[in-house]
Structures are given as structure tokens and as C-alpha cells.
Amino acid sequence: MGVLPLRYDRASHPHSQRTAPTLTISFPPSHNPPKVKMGATVVKVNQWQDYAREVIRGAEVLSQGGIVVLPTETVYGATILLSNRLGRDQLKTLRKDGGSKPLTPHLVRPEQAELFLGPPSELAGRMMRKLWPGPVGLQFDVSPEQRVKAAANLAVGEEDLFDNGSITLRCPDHPVFTDVASKLDGPVAATLAGEAGSFDADKLARDLDGKVEMIFDAGPPRFSKPSTLVKVLSDGYQIVRAGVYDERTIARLMKTMILFVCSGNTCRSPMSEAIARKVLMDKFGVDAAGLEKRGIEVASAGAMAVNGNRATPAAVEAVKSLGADLSKHRSRPLTVELINQADVVYTMGRGHTRAVLSLVPSATEKVKSLDPARDIEDPIGGDVELYVSLAGVLKKLIEARLNEGPLP
User: Of 32, 34, 31, 54, which Cα lies nearest the Cα of 44?
Assistant: First the structure.
């Protein structure tokens, strides 16, 4: 067994939807008999510098029909290039079911799901945007015509992908998985390597000696539970297996969130939050509880905020004149989790946009300036009349933004 110590800088891969690297390496599938495996190479990703070289080597092994063990946020998976017949045949020998059940494709980006599903329904697309990448497997019913098309495009038998017309897809949230899989020109498939809830690279290398070529050791998975499995229906969803996320968490993640961002979260963004909530309540003819039942959440945060500060008295007074309420507001800082959860992020100025994107670079498409023409000036230190004037401006901007199209 060879051991290569490598260093992996986790700080360069924030827990956000990552943009896949632009470099794609495509290797022709091997039609030669598999080479005799002399032992799995264990790549210690936290201990040395040439991580990029080993990522490329892992991609080459996969492209040639080999098996590479990659980490996800829940378990380690024995991984193959889905379109390579040799890899599929070898992976089946590792599976506890003996290869009798379909493979589970693992995606680098949610958009890859279209390879299997075709254009997704509005609900399916929303669930993929809200829950991926993350510890959730989504099950979809696929039409006979699309099953034939998907199998042909990937040179895979339908029985390798679909079970009674249904397919399960995963989009893991782990930078090492993303780095290796994104170098390939097609999706991968993976099955559990070792035991769920624990990880010992050396033991795994012994157990899989002669069966896999490489093991990327990134330490224990982030979660000790298996992924949650959710069935996507025509008009809703069903929890098939609870895992990292329970039913309440899935429901929370599925909400539509509109997020406003300023600096301290005591003036502009909380005023926008309160006004937007009132505009939406009036639009749907509901109270705050009714808005929540519709799955709509309006929130705010500050790029330089601390927890727990009240909105300024002038801000509270200004939104009251519009029928909105800020009396219970408490400030909170902008976080990666808030940005990921939001469907759209409205910023008060260009500096706030930069703050959002510094935390989650891949959030570009959902970050918008509330006023496209100019920055909204901070009213801090001004009198009530200034705040009342600002509230009127914010209301017009928010109404225009919400009328641009359907809620995300």
C-alpha cells in the first residue's frame, strides 16, 4: 500500500455551491483487461502540497475504468466514471447487493440532473436548487422516453440507472469529490465504501486491497448520519429516509427566502425586510402567519453586524407609518448559511454585494442591488424625516423588484 501525504487547503473551498474548475481532462475509455491492483494508494489530502497533481491522477484512473474512493459530506464512496463499462462492472463486485440494483449517479453540479431527467419540473428544479449540493438524495420518476434517451447518451443499460422507472441522484457537498469529479467529461456513480458513520483510511485500504486504485483521505465525514432520501412528486415531496436532515429541516430549506443585506443590520436592511413582508402580506391577503404557511420568509443581515442590536428608533418609527413592524428586530451577521438558504439577495450597495460574494462566490446569479442605479445611502444619524423618506423609497424599489417575475 502506497501512502502519499498531501496538503489540502479547506479554506479555499468554502461550504457553498462551488464553481467547477474550467479545466476538463477527457481520457478515452480503456478496452483492455483490468490491470492487477497491487494495493490502494492512500492520498492524505491535508499533509502535502501537490494536491492538484493527485486530483488529475485520480481523474485519469476513473477515466480508464478504475475505482477511486472519494469523500462526501456523509460517507466515503467507491466511485467510477458512469459511462465506463469496465468501471461499472468492477463497482458491482464491491456492492453488498451484488450489483442487482441500479447505480446512484453522483453529480458535480445540479444542472447535470438534466442528463437523466430532461428539463425538470418547476418543483424538481426548486428542490435541486435548495437542497443541492448537500446531504440529500433525490428520487425522480422518469418517463419511458427519457429513460431510453438518458441510457443511450451515457452508453449505459436502463437497468443500471432506473428502478421501476425511478432514479436516485446525489450531488455531494465536499470539495475533494468536486475537484476530482469535475475533471471528467461525464457524471460518476458511487457506492458506500467501508462503514457509514466511521472512517479509517488505513483499514479501508486493507479491506479494499486489490479492488480500488486510490483512496482520497480527507478525514472523517462532516456528518455521522447517512444522507436524507426524498422522493420528488408531481405536487410535493415525501421523505423516504430520514438522515442528516429530518422532515422539519427539509421543510425549512424548501422555503422561499428573500434576504436583504446592509452593513450593521439596524437601518436599511431591516427596514427593507419589514416593508417587503408587509408588501407580500398585502399581495396575498394574509397575515404574518399566513405568509409563513405559504413557505415565504423575509430576512435581513449585516455584512459588519453583531448579534442582538435593535433597529434604530427612527427606523422603527419610519416603517410604522407604512403599516410595518420592526419592534422585535434584532441584528444578525451575514453568514454562508444565510446566503445559501436565500433564493435572492438584495444588497444596499456595491460593497455589500462584494461582501456576499466574498463568502459565497457562486451566488452571483442571485445577488442583486436593490436599487440598480445607485447605492442606497446609510441614514444613520439622521432624523425621523430622513428615515420616513427612505422608507418611501425602499417601498417603491421593493415593489418593483417583487413585480419583476414570480417569486423564486
Answer: 54
Question: What's the Cα-to-Cα distance from 313 to each of 255, 382, 383, rounded to whole Å?
Answer: 30, 11, 10
Exposed/middle/buried for residue 115 (C-beta within 10 Å: 0-12, 13-18, 19+): middle
Report the range of poorest mean pLDDT among 131-135, 293-297, 361-365, 389-393.
Answer: 293-297
Q: Domain segments of the chain: what residues?
A: 3-10+24-251, 255-402
Q: Match 396575498 to its residue by C-alpha cell.
A: 284
Going by their DSSP bridges, the two strands 228-232 and 136-141 should be labelled as parallel
pLDDT for position 126: 84
Give yes or no for residue 399 having a pLDDT over 90.
yes
pLDDT band at 407 (very low <50, low <70, confident <90, very high): low
Q: What share of the chain is helix, strand, coil (3-state, %, to 5)?
A: 35, 20, 45
Q: Distance of CA 251 to CAs 23, 74, 339, Å?
A: 37, 20, 17
Which of the 8 DSSP states describes residue 190? E
Judge residue 382's burial from the number of C-beta atoms within 10 Å of its C-beta, 0-12 exposed, 13-18 middle, 19 or more buried. middle
16-44 core/surface letters (b: 16 or more CB in 10 A; e: else): bbbebeeeeeebeebeeeeeebeebbbbb
Q: What is the CATH number of domain 255-402?
A: 3.40.50.2300
Q: Could you tell me which CATH number the domain at 3-10+24-251 has?
A: 3.90.870.10
The sign of the CA dihedral 191, 196, 197, 200 is negative
- The pLDDT, as a whole number, for residue 12 is 38
- Whether the Cβ atoms of residue 364 and residue 357 lie closer than 8 Å to each other: yes
Q: What is the pLDDT of residues 306-358, one digit of tens each?
A: 999 999 999 999 999 999 999 999 999 999 989 988 999 999 999 999 999 99
Task: Go through the chain and tell me how many residues it has.
Answer: 408
Specify the 3-state DSSP secondary structure of 255.
coil
Q: How far apart are CA 246 and CA 254, in angstroms?
A: 12
What's the CA gap between 314 and 114, in Å, rounded? 50
The predicted-structure confidence for 111-150, as pLDDT tens digits, reads as follows: 999 999 999 998 898 899 889 999 999 999 999 999 999 9
Catalytic residues: 262, 268, 378
Is the torsion defined by CA of 342, 347, 352, 353 positive or negative?
Answer: positive
For residues 363-386, give the mean pLDDT: 95
Contact 395, 279 (CB under 8 A): yes
